[in-house]
Amino acid sequence: MITKEQYLALDACAMAESLAAGDLTSSELMECAIAQKEKVNGQLNAVNVDLSESAWNHAQQADKETGRNQHTPFLGIPFLIKDLTDLKGAQITHGSRLYTTSSKNGPVISDQNAKVVKRYLDSGLLMLGKTNTPEFGLSVSTEPVANGPCANPWHTDYSTGGSSGGAAAAVAAGIVPVAHATDAGGSIRIPASCCGLLGLKPSRGLVVSDDDMLANRSGLTVNHVLSRSVRDSASFLDIVRLRKPELFPLPDVPQDLTEASQQIPGPLRIMLQTEHPFGESIDEDCLRAVTTLASCCESLGHKIEDMSAQPDYRAAARAMNKILCAHTFQQVRTRLQVLDISLEQADLETSTRQMTEAGSRITAADYAEALTTLDRIREEMRQLFCSSDLLLSPVLAKTPARLGWLNMNANSLEDYAARYRCYSGFTPLANGAGLPSLSIPAVSTSEGLPVGAMFTGAWGSDLILLKLAYQIEQTQPWPMLAPIAND
């Protein structure tokens, strides 16, 4: 029987190897995952849709299956889906009261799997539940009114970041080794930084996405995972990557990222960014995270140089805001039609309502102009990476915020917007330009909270990011788990 300590020490790849060798069973893994969830979730509120019973039954069934093959590399391993994504037969809330207390016929149950979920199921992963997220994924802190706030496993008075905050908390607390996440403006990288994890936002067009522009928010949103190891991130990218282009052009990335990512990269030219895009101040610990990874890269033979040009972050932010508001209006309006209520009657959080109202006023010309702006930003970034390989910057301008500091229902939305602007700012550009971007754990604050730094590369340079992350992981390994996992 596998012990709790043994379970917590394994990443998903190690679990798969042990299962294939017959050293443990899926039932043993699931028993540990369920026990860990029951132990920590009351303090964290990371998992808001519990599928333990069906997961246990599926684990027992997985133990009966024989003839494992390359198409089910993770058969029998516990996994979690973000609660913005459809998992057939499971409740979906989008972190919103429009899907919980406002629903006339009880919980809203998905009647189909999202395409990314189908990939995970086909790989053999077993769905233990769904993870907490802010309303419609629209905040960088996971504190929805509908499901309650998610606490940081390193210090429960603090935020996990967002919008994949529940996924990050679950992985850092040892419930599962890897969890599904999405990123439309930093929603993988920000929780990774706040919770001491690895968080890769892949290149646009590289991974599977549902076939409508609402699901991927006009290409801003991508699917991947939060993980504790580089090889898990690479392996799960292999699960969801596309082999031919679908909605967007397909970057030229090697077919086997898992193996290729464990090779040492050649000398890289890395630009350093230490000033906030909007002129805000940056916390000392956030700058220390950048300089720590810069020093590590220099020791590995890479060249650190000043940022050669400043992209137009303000124009990108304005354009992305128009697109996100338009899609928020689209999503909310569809739900209001189902509920047969008006926007005035809807139980929406204050900032979501404001985005919905703004979205209702966006014209086709506004939307087209926003896309044109992002095309220009994408060309600016292409030119920037002609002379360098990567950009190293903070993930956030401040260390993890206390719960309640970023209040989507604040009486003063001006105050909320000001806090949001000074807290974030670095991550969205990669979404607007479709670039790969990766948060790596770097330092800790005096309160014991993790702080990451972020590498961003040219479109299609996902493998370079993984190779560098693997090199750093071998040189400067980060803590695998928050203390709460072993308490």
Walk me through the topology.
Layout: H1 4-9, H2 12-21, H3 26-44, E1 47-50, H4 52-64, E2 78-82, H5 115-122, E3 126-131, E4 151-152, E5 155-159, H6 165-172, E6 178-183, H7 189-195, E7 198-201, E8 222-227, H8 230-240, H9 257-260, E9 269-272, H10 284-299, E10 303-306, H11 313-339, H12 350-360, H13 364-384, E11 390-394, H14 413-423, H15 428-433, E12 437-444, E13 450-457, H16 462-475
Parallel strand pairs: 2-3, 9-10, 9-11
Antiparallel strand pairs: 1-3, 4-5, 6-8, 7-8, 7-12, 11-13, 12-13
Query: In terms of structural class, how would the helical and strand content be classed?
Result: alpha+beta
Biggest beta-sheet profile = 8 strands, mixed
Rg from alpha-carbon coordinates: 21 Å
Q: What portion of residues is helical?
A: 25-40%
Distance between the termini: 21 Å
H/E series, N to C? HHHEHEHEEEHEHEEHHEHEHHHEHHEEH
Q: What general outline do the C-alpha atoms trace? A: globular
Strand percentage, roughly? 5-15%
Main sheet strand line-up: 6-8-7-12-13-11-9-10
DSSP summary, beta strand count: 13
Number of separate helices: 16
pLDDT < 50 runs, ≥5 residues: none
**Average pLDDT level:** 96
